[in-house]
From TrEMBL:
Annotated Acidic residues bias: 502-511
Lineage top rank: taxon: Archaea
Gene3D superfamilies in the record: Alkaline Phosphatase, subunit A
Residue ranges occupied by any Sulfatase N-terminal domain in the UniProt entry: 8-345
Protein name: Sulfatase-like hydrolase/transferase
Region (Disordered), start-end ranges: 492-513
Comp. bias (Basic and acidic residues): 492-501
């Protein structure tokens, strides 16, 4: 196959920070996603798609490589994707590719954009050219030179002041229309040249802070002043700021308005694709990377936990081999890597040589049982652990490494309020989870492990490994034992549990280069 063979186009859309139960296509009681409801008429709608982590960098790295976070290594402890081949690189000989986003983690700095023929970042902290294109290497040179770095620090300081204004509500504007415009131009150019294309976009409207366009704010959050509600999750999480039910309701109204805006922009893109005659030949993936909490478990945002509102994400796929409808089978979001290869690869038939699909000896081998397009999807023919009666494919795994960036911000907010954080708390804890559709076991590094019977307790309110253990039935105990054993087997395949670290080791173990990059992006002070 070469770039001119037809029928292999891919549009991959990530709605950043969108939780499943806030989409009307997933039965939310507010009309947030009418366009996606129409899309569902021709797409597979998945109820049990599980992200491998609760935040952007490791999730995108997993979707781009087919690897778990512990395999690709991209986390806040090491905020780069290194020594891994991306999906775009694997498709470089067969597809023209582009990556457009307004997320600061999806830039040449983190290597998530490696392999894309074109990429652009619409991040508000500083002009996007500092984070993408030819100026990215110039910016790196400035940062690596002690003298020039003073100039770079000044530019970043100015950029952060601009960001404080543009994100304040008065000057805030969505970058999504620009992303859609550029996507249309890219597709049109590829089509004009007769080439297959792979277009990835990440839309950030639903990420804090929420300042939706007026027309949607009036519909979903009438009378709410976005500059008066708490838009800093760290203030709430550390205890410096209280948020009552009414304020959380206002925040969720703004959040829904942001989702509605993204849906309208997707409608514009999808309608244009139909008019241009490129819709039928394109596999379309629409998903979230993670969700958001609004006070559940006394948390706000998407850090310090791996509860289902963060990791059980929406995912919809349009493909001729997938019948439209609802699918309840659990799968892992890293399976999308294999699914895209299956659709876009040189030999997607059942007897294909897996190596022929990846085309790169350093890339993760294509696994047919991880492709959503195959009848034997998730049939691994391997027990979840020795002696298990369930297949490993029935389990999904989530990994959360030390949240260096959020933790530093949390500590700063706590210190300013005269609050001392407990270092033996979830704020300082790494986490892993083993999940099946009816049960979930969470391994915590610094606090007690947790277990939830999801079929009876989808809100994860009754911890049967904790104070509610006395109420666990024999079936609950068996499910807990099995899910913990599956997680332990996963950890063994990953090299065991976490290494022991001292309280201050996480930041000190990071390279100076990594800390400098996070400072430049405005995540560290």
């Amino acid at each position: 196959m070469d770039r001119t063979d037809s029928g292999r186009n891919v549009l991959f859309v990530v709605l950043d920070t969108v939780r499943k139960d806030h989409l009307s296509v997933y039965d939310h009681d507010r009309p947030t996603t009418p366009a996606l409801e129409d899309f569902a008429d021709e797409a597979a709608v998945y109820e049990q798609a599980i992200s491998p982590a609760p935040w952007t960098l490791p999730v995108h790295a997993s979707m781009f490589t087919g690897l778990y976070p512990s395999e690709h290594g991209a986390s806040q402890e090491n905020p780069y994707l290194e020594d891994a081949t991306t999906l775009a690189q694997s498709l470089s000989s067969t597809h023209r590719s582009a990556c457009y986003s307004s997320n600061a983690w999806i830039t040449p700095y983190t290597h998530l954009t490696d392999g894309f023929d074109d990429q652009d970042n619409f991040f508000e902290v500083m002009p996007g050219d500092f984070l993408s294109g030819p100026l990215a290497s110039v910016w790196k040179t400035m940062n690596d030179n002690d003298h020039l770095r003073k100039v770079a620090d000044y530019l970043v300081s100015v950029g952060n002041k601009i960001h404080e204004y543009t994100a304040s509500g008065e000057g805030a504007d969505s970058k999504t229309p620009e992303v859609i415009d550029k996507t249309q131009s890219f597709i049109a150019d590829a089509e004009a040249d007769g080439e297959n294309w792979f277009q990835f976009i990440n839309l950030m409207d639903a990420h804090l802070p929420y300042h939706p366009p007026e027309e949607y704010a009036e519909e979903f959050a009438p009378g709410v002043d976005s500059t008066e509600v708490c838009q800093n999750s760290k203030e709430y999480n550390c205890g410096a700021r209280d948020i009552d039910d009414d304020e959380f309701a206002d925040l969720q109204g703004l959040y829904d308005a942001e989702i509605r805006h993204m849906d309208a922009q997707l409608d514009r893109l999808f309608s244009w694709m139909r008019e241009e005659g490129v819709w039928e030949d394109t596999m379309v993936v629409v998903c979230a990377d993670h969700g958001e909490l609004f006070g559940e478990h006394d948390l706000y945002g998407h850090e310090f936990c791996i509860y289902d509102p963060l990791v059980n994400v929406p995912c919809m796929v349009k493909h001729p081999d997938l019948g439209a409808g609802r699918y309840d089978e659990q799968f892992e979001m890293l399976d999308l890597y294999h699914t895209v290869l299956d659709h876009a690869g040189t030999a997607p038939d059942a007897d294909a040589d897996p190596a022929a699909l990846t085309r790169d000896p350093q890339a993760r081998d294509f696994e047919a049982t991880r492709s959503l397009l195959r009848d034997d999807h998730r049939t691994f023919d391997e027990p979840a652990y020795e002696g298990a009666d369930r297949d490993r494919g029935e389990y999904a795994f989530v990994e959360y490494y030390r949240p260096v960036v959020e933790l530093k911000q949390l500590e700063q907010k706590a210190s300013s309020a005269g609050i001392t954080l407990d270092e033996d708390s979830r704020f300082y804890s790494r986490m892993r989870a083993g999940r099946r559709v009816d049960a979930k076991y969470v391994r915590n590094e610094r606090i007690a492990d947790e277990f939830y019977r999801l079929k009876d307790d989808p809100g994860e309110n009754v911890d049967l490994a904790g104070d509610a253990r006395e109420h666990a039935s024999d079936l609950d105990e068996a499910a807990m034992e099995a899910t913990e054993a599956a997680l332990a087997a996963f950890e063994e395949r990953r090299g065991g549990e976490w290494k022991s670290v001292e309280d201050d080791d996480v930041l000190s173990d990071m390279s100076d280069d990594a800390k400098d990059r996070l400072q430049d992006l405005g995540y560290l002070e």
